[in-house]
Write a structure and sequence with these properties.
Blueprint: H1 4-18, E1 31-36, E2 39-45, H2 54-60, E3 74-79, H3 91-98, E4 102-107, H4 117-124, E5 128-130, H5 135-141, H6 143-151, E6 155-162, E7 167-169, H7 180-191, E8 195-199, H8 200-206, E9 221-225, H9 236-239, E10 244-247, E11 258-260, H10 268-278, E12 283-288, H11 290-298, E13 304-309, E14 318-319, E15 327-335, E16 338-345
Parallel strand pairs: 3-4, 4-5, 6-12, 6-13, 8-9, 8-12, 9-10, 10-11
Antiparallel strand pairs: 1-2, 1-3, 7-14, 13-16, 15-16
Helix pairs in contact: 3-4
């Protein structure tokens, strides 16, 4: 049976898993802790996509002097050890080989290639397995992964900044609203995403680079929604040497790193989610403009909304979208002089009353 100690070590497991944010997607964030008589003898996490999984890193970290204790230890994993060959060998095989006494898991893996088979294999080897320990916290942590596997689309984050009177900017003008701290936070969010999208109006007016220069970490793949082919070819998204995926008519003469997704059969934003899912994108971060954000909302293709609220008063301009019904509350915190609010769509993967920080 699960105990209060199991929750203590699973919390540590989730803390370790969080370290993979921005580097493991579309894989899940996973941590592993090996405990003997309430003493941690090793821990690890999935550090990068395609690299060793958390269990491998954990067992590798066991000191030579503690190897004899492994078979009397409990292994904590926030996600069921995999049972199939992917980029790496099955972790369930390794757990069985190491012969731990007990395995405690937060979530079984929804991936049909695993989906209970890892647990079954470990139990068949005579190892005790407990599942569902801090299950909701695990679901929330890996909400990106669960959404992608179950709903067959990326997890969609909508982000905008707005003035105190509800405007995103002055029409046709590049309008700075967020302060320095909030801007750095937004770049962190970019680094933790796989793709970042803007529409034609935002691309033309703001001429953004859509990189993560104010935060360490990767730059997401850039996506431009330009159905009319109206964005001038000299703007950054079309003229620089970074990859950009363009939804719109093909335009000759652009750098080779610009790819055209063409037009498809559904609404433009649904086309985007389908194509990005096929390209193994796990997290899509949408920065605007208003029309694009509202289309994701109206099509029901959103999971999280992040709003940076400024104290600045604009008086007039482009209205920010309304937060839609169907949210499950929000978390709020300050970023310098700005107030950040994060809303979650009601879903299985975003349970209420969880104390896992998003920022």
């Amino acid at each position: 049976m699960a105990s209060s100690d199991d929750e203590i070590w699973m919390k540590r497991c989730l803390e370790l898993a969080q370290r993979g944010a921005g580097t493991v997607s579309p894989n899940p964030m996973v941590g592993a802790v090996l405990v003997h008589n309430n003493r941690v003898i090793a821990e690890g996490w999935h550090e990068r996509w395609g690299g060793p999984h958390a269990e491998v890193n954990c067992f590798h970290a066991v000191a030579t002097s503690d190897e004899r204790l492994v078979r009397e230890s409990t292994l904590y994993c926030n996600l069921e050890p995999c049972s199939h060959h992917g980029k790496t060998p099955p972790c369930a095989d390794l757990v069985v080989k190491k012969g731990v006494k007990r395995v405690v898991i937060a979530n079984t893996d929804p991936n049909p290639l695993v989906s209970g088979r890892g647990v079954e294999q470990i139990r068949h080897a005579g190892i005790q397995v407990e599942t569902g320990v801090m299950e909701n916290d695990g679901l929330f942590l890996n909400r990106y992964f669960f959404t992608r596997i179950i709903q067959k689309r990326p997890y969609v984050i909508l982000k905008w900044a707005q003035s105190a009177d509800g405007f995103m900017g002055i029409k046709g003008e590049k309008t700075a609203i967020s302060g320095p701290a909030a801007l750095r936070l937004a770049h962190r969010w970019r680094s933790e995403s796989d793709a970042i999208l803007v529409g034609a109006a935002t691309a033309t007016t703001d001429n953004p680079s859509l990189d993560s220069r104010l935060w360490f970490g990767k730059n997401p793949i850039r996506v431009l929604l330009d159905g009319a082919g109206s964005v001038p070819s000299h703007i950054n998204l079309l003229s620089d040497n970074r990859e950009t995926l363009i939804f719109g008519p093909h335009r000759p003469g652009l750098p080779a790193c610009k790819r055209f997704a063409g037009t498809h059969t559904h609404t433009p934003v649904r086309d985007v989610t389908e194509v990005l899912f096929s390209e193994n994108i796990g997290i899509l971060y949408v920065e605007g403009g208003t029309g694009v954000l509202e289309q994701f909302i109206s099509d029901g293709l959103w999971d999280e909304i992040r709003i940076i609220g400024s104290r600045r008063i604009l008086g007039s301009g482009v209205r920010a979208p309304a937060v839609p019904e169907g949210t499950t509350g929000y978390t709020a915190f300050e970023a310098g002089e700005d107030l950040v609010k994060i809303y979650f769509r009601q879903s299985t993967y975003n349970p209420d009353n969880l104390n896992i920080p998003v920022a």
